[in-house]
């Protein structure tokens, strides 16, 4: 038995000994290097581009501009999909060229590309490309961009800077709920833009083979087949068979690498132009300007409750900052940030709306969590505000509102139907692990030490399992086998988990299983990995592939054992006949599929199994969920915040590898802590990125990390045969709300009633002091 | 970045006005200025500036706008530092006659873009302040010495 065991990760030996192979580790013969010329303006017309000086510089092979892109007929790229595909209204979709020709719309937009012998030569020559810009006014804030006087980004968008508005729920019913309310709490919540920040920056190598008129792209990708489709059919206008996409080891994706970027197309095209492989690796500061970003939502939210603290209705109007393009997978965060707003609670009436708005900043796309953290932040912050207003314990008000297990499957009123879950149980287990009742004593101890202690209990719910998937298992003649995965691991440990599954199902030793992913010439089709989809969709497809393989092998086993196929059973790696004790192992049967003659001629040559699975839309996703208890200490004199306790109880469905589940939770929490306490991409009003380096963009460090106590609860999902629920994003979802609520609980006695993320020490200090001066003012007036 | 200030020069206003319209004085006063040549509507300049890890040579234009001789003008410049980004800014300068000399009032605004802006507000602002201060200190020195 290997499933459910905390098997050590097969891939870690390679990674930890420096034997990983990332794009930058690949050096192709005769390769040359690309550097990009980026727009320093947020909004400007390109008057002229002078490449003459750059072209004359040492080592320079070519300088290419948007005019060359157009002249060579390279296609522009639409969004991966628009909300219409998921049942939303049409909206305005942008078409993004690989290099812009006439107008830049954000700082970091690619204007020209230099190809040179070395990366340094390419960068130096890129410095010498002279671009003459005529500046236009810029707008960076989504709500400001909706002002009729705001600069317009896309003149042919019929709705100004608004691409699309999504609405969920029932406005009339919600209005009635608010009329009947005993109390209404309202707040404005900002989930600012954050950088996905993969440890390995984006990078790619384009390699055009003129002899075969065939392209190969090595790229740091979460979804090689998705890259191939867009690059072949939309950009290069070639059959997909003429492009091979290889995604080697990938050092973190977090959504950033779920969709192609302009450089992926540019290096392929440049390779054809110069007749050599062309490599491009982002510098860190280039990545910070050009990468897509996550979150970027401002929500005006209000909740109606009765006197007993039961929720009657929820009304949210939100604004998503799309940036300059509707790019990549920007659609899912729009949906999930709305559809998961009811969270784990029964809310009889909801009226939810988000507006996706163009501005002059870098494009929005998915980032680990993709809309779910925004939703959890709004609902969980409101719950604490309601508790405070009604003078209820935050645990008690939640207990009064949880969807109960008896209500499953539960339609949440925003278009999602939860299949399973026991939210009250998770909350109780989490509170118990956190020693909820011991808080009062700990608070007194903190106060004695001059610090304020606060706590929170928050729940989150996630929707996991988008799109279909395919997995394949192949035996080789010597009896070992290979998993060919349509999913794509870039830190998730798939080589281990999928091998565990196959090992148990087929009774093949883990060491005899090889795992292959990320090569469109090896893997027939796949969707890659994002949105916590792989355990359900990869796992289910793999189960079906194993069943398919067993079925094929059992026909051969029947021939070899000279019985009817219906008399064959498979268990523990052996085929046996029902009426005798004859057996033959799967490995032995597999060998017969590879013999040059014999019974194999009745079947296909070679033994393999294939399986597919279906996800959202069209099939039911799964709903991972959890509860977190957080305790913080605040030093009021400095605003310093210390996370003292952090307990996560997660319902992961069936845990395939508990160690990897917990690792995913830890990583997600780290990113949630980053968003809560320090991370934010800030643009000034002219559209300049002012947090463009690690001097100003604060990633969480070891000092920010608490000890995370994690417990897995296994309530099987009803929507897939394995009973699994996703885990990849969970930590990011509830964490920001858990931390901000705990900080507010600590400082509420000082009169602080709201805090926006990131809650830095400086911001908290300001809030404490402005509350104090308000208090003094009140006192002054009274006396 | 915005910066305001004033300084006193013990020289008559007409003399100060002549100085701040003299290309050679401007060249000496603009920090890092290597060349300053008069063209039709102002000057072309090359200026080398170091901000944090970025050292860039800017080529750009300096213009004198809203000239109200001998009382006030706006000196405005913008430069392109290649991939380092761009910088632009200006100063409104006003000369106030006093009994024993001239009071020079100035209000500076500056902004940067591209890689320079990526260095972050704190570094940019402190550098801009320093450079602006240097400019007016030198004007003051030159005027006083004249």
Could you provide a short overview of the structure?
The complex is a heterodimer of chains A (783) and B (146). Chain A is built from 20 helices and 28 strands.
What does this structure look like?
The complex is a heterodimer of chains A (783) and B (146). Chain A is α+β, with helices and mostly antiparallel strands and 783 residues long. Among the domains of chain A are: 294-464 and 621-774, 2-Layer Sandwich (Aldehyde Oxidoreductase, domain 4); 469-613, Aldehyde oxidase/xanthine dehydrogenase, molybdopterin binding domain (Aldehyde Oxidoreductase, domain 4), CATH 3.30.365.10. Chain A is built from 20 helices and 28 strands. In chain A, strands 3-5-1-12-9-10-11 form a seven-stranded mixed sheet, with helices on both faces. In chain A, helix 10 (331-339) runs parallel beside helix 11, helix 16 (534-561) packs across helix 17 and helix 18 packs across helix 19 (730-747). By secondary structure, chain B is of the alpha+beta class. Chain B has one domain: START domain (Alpha-D-Glucose-1,6-Bisphosphate, Chain A, domain 4). Chain B has four helices and seven strands. Chain B has helices at residues 13-20, 23-29, 115-118, 121-145; strands spanning 2-9, 33-39, 42-51, 54-68, 72-80, 86-98, 101-113. In chain B, strands 1-7-6-5-4-3-2 form a seven-stranded antiparallel sheet. In chain B, helix 2 (23-29) packs across helix 4. Chain B is globular. The N and C termini of chain B lie far apart (31 Å). The interface between A and B is medium-sized, with 25 and 18 residues.
Total number of distinct structural domains of chain B: 1
| CATH homologous superfamily (4th level) name of the domain at 294-464 and 621-774 in chain A | Aldehyde oxidase/xanthine dehydrogenase, molybdopterin binding domain
Question: Could you give the order of strands across the largest sheet of chain B?
Answer: 1-7-6-5-4-3-2
Helicity level of chain A, as a percent range?
25-40%
- Can you say what the CATH homologous superfamily of chain B is? START domain
CATH hierarchy: architecture of the domain at 294-464 and 621-774 in chain A: 2-Layer Sandwich
Largest sheet of chain A: 7 strands, mixed
Q: Helix proportion of residues of chain B, in percent?
A: 25-40%
